[in-house]
Amino acid sequence: DAKTTQPNSMESNEEEPVHLPCNHSTISGTDYIHWYRQLPSQGPEYVIHGLTSNVNNRMASLAIAEDRKSSTLILHRATLRDAAVYYCILRATIPNAGGTSYGKLTFGQGTILTVHP
Amino acid sequence: NAGVTQTPKFRILKIGQSMTLQCTQDMNHNYMYWYRQDPGMGLKLIYYSVGAGITDKGEVPNGYNVSRSTTEDFPLRLELAAPSQTSVYFCASSYSFASTLANYGYTFGSGTRLTVV
């Protein structure tokens, strides 16, 4: 499985933009780049995903390098509620015995984001 | 719309006991997954299902069993509980992996914290 590398931790101030980097140099052509975040004692929450082009949604933006070997999650204005562990994940396509496939998410250790008031 | 519901939220088992972790989703998702998360670690896939009647093993299936009789329900069975199964268990669901929508991802439940003593 292709792996991702993220910084262990990052800090930001409230109301400032946050850029969370992720390296995935062994990404394959069919791997989608997913970002999830996990607040303490909660399940992971989907943030954003993309394949090749940059993506925007109400939560964040995802900037994908042209060679797809790295990506950056951008939180435009950090709030205290954005403090969480952020996971950069490559979703691999795995065939199963029935002839169909499923998307496999392989979680690493993520980046702990601390937001200061 | 409740999303993914897991029960119970907490459970303490004695070594050798059995239990079933329940997972229900009301989004008509065809794919469902069970993950476990050990302290300070990312999530690891236990089992997954691509539809009613179809299940397959993930990365760490030993000691667990699943069934998928309906689209909505995907219970995880622990037979002969062991201390190594002390963990937080998350159920998730998704549509087909081949989504091109920018705001689409996996929906996780809030987890079941299991302690085996």
Short description:
The complex is a heterodimer of chains A (about 120) and B (about 120). Chain A has about 120 residues and is mostly beta strands.
Textual characterization of the structure:
The complex is a heterodimer of chains A (117) and B (117). With 117 residues, chain A is an all-beta fold. Chain A has no helices and 10 strands. Chain A is globular. In chain B, the strands form 2 sheets. In chain B, strands 2, 4, 5, 6, 9, 10 and 11 form a 7-stranded mixed beta sheet that branches. Chain B has a 4-stranded antiparallel beta sheet with strand order 1-3-8-7, with no helix packed on it. Chain B is globular, with a radius of gyration of 14 Å. At the A-B interface, strand 3, strand 4, strand 5, strand 8 and strand 9 of A face strand 5, strand 9 and strand 10 of B.
Per-chain topology:
The complex is a heterodimer of chains A (117) and B (117).
Chain A: E1 9-13, E2 18-23, E3 32-38, E4 45-50, E5 55-56, E6 61-64, E7 70-75, E8 84-95, E9 101-105, E10 111-116
Parallel strand pairs in A: 1-10
Antiparallel strand pairs in A: 2-7, 3-4, 3-8, 5-6, 6-7, 8-9, 8-10
Chain B: E1 4-7, E2 10-13, E3 19-25, E4 31-37, E5 43-51, E6 54-57, E7 64-66, E8 76-78, E9 87-94, E10 107-108, E11 112-116
Parallel strand pairs in B: 2-11
Antiparallel strand pairs in B: 1-3, 3-8, 4-5, 4-9, 5-6, 7-8, 9-10, 9-11
